[in-house]
Amino acid sequence: MIMRDKIQKSIKDDLEIPPLPQAVLQVQTLVEDPSTTARDLAAVISSDATLTARLLKQANSKFYGYSKSIGTVPLAIVVLGFDTVREIALGITTLRLADSAFEQSLLDPERFWSHSLAVAAGSRIIAQKWRIGLAGEAFVVGLMHDLGRLLLASYWSNKYKEVINEARSNSRHQYEVENEMLGTNHAEVTSWLLERWKLPEQMVIAAKQVHQPLEEQTIDLSKCVILANWLAHRSGFRHDSDAPYLPEPQHIIKTLPGYEEIELRNQIKELYRQATGLLDILKSRSF
User: Model confidence at 151, in pLDDT bands (50, 70, 90)?
Assistant: First the structure.
């Protein structure tokens, strides 16, 4: 428990974790407000050069197929929609956090992003299909749900290497080994980070509950991410240090009328391809 307390205090108070830029915080607040207009969002986004550049680049990508070049932020917001604007804003900060973790060579960047994007895509589809949470929030939590791995790999690399080796050597679920050796797990660590970033409470809770048992799950948003995480594993989008399977979340599946695993997995793969385009734009160094 001492290790857990130390990690929690470090994440909440001590570590020099990149903060959410003021513009990103304002975007999050505005997207949550049903009275917000594209002009309101544009005023905030235009104050941040990086956010503006990524937004325009995404709006002009082939996926949206707009016949004319989009050169203004308000038009880009109309084309993309509020949810995508939020995804871009939060995604930029997520990438900044990832750089130092991958330098430790404990996590494979390709596998990390493949899994994160697949869970994000699946969370959005599940939220939309069964109307069990806001699709935009579901995507963002899915994208961010493993940021705790990045923090542990970055700031507690020696201890986390032991965790990964134990999980790999004995085909154990990594979060179980984390609980055993650290007194916490990457999902809880992620929730502390999202709390520090002042993201909405339901997103913090959903991130924390990804690996918690049924009786400890309290919100619908958690269902989206838990099921999407399981489907991502089933589709081959998983970390190389993870056990080859996750327990089937039957308690969630039983509440979803018309559930078809194969259909959902195909939809996730299609949306995943679209999400990789977003990731390429977020990573782009050229405007």
Answer: very high
- The stretch 190-203 carries a mean pLDDT of 93
The gap from C-alpha 225 to its chain's centroid, in whole angstroms, comes to: 9
Do 173 and 107 meet the contact criterion of CB atoms below 8 Å apart?
no
Helical pair 174-182 and 2-9, crossing angle rounded to 10 deg: 100
CB of 12 closer than 8 Å to CB of 195: yes
Tell me the C-alpha distance between 80 and 129, whole Å: 20
- Mean pLDDT within 241-256: 82
Asked whether the whole model's pTM tops 0.85, one would answer: yes
Asked whether 164 and 174 are in contact (CB, 8 A), the reply is yes
Domains along the chain with CATH numbers: 11-18+100-283 (1.10.3210.10)
Confidence class for position 161, pLDDT limits 50, 70, 90 = very high
CA distance 161 to 30: 40
Cα–Cα distance, 258 to 77 (Å, whole number): 34
CA atoms within 13 A on the CB side of 137: 25
Query: Per the structure block, which two tokens stand in for 18?
Result: 């990149």
Exposed, middle or buried by CB within 10 Å (0-12, 13-18, 19+), for 175? buried
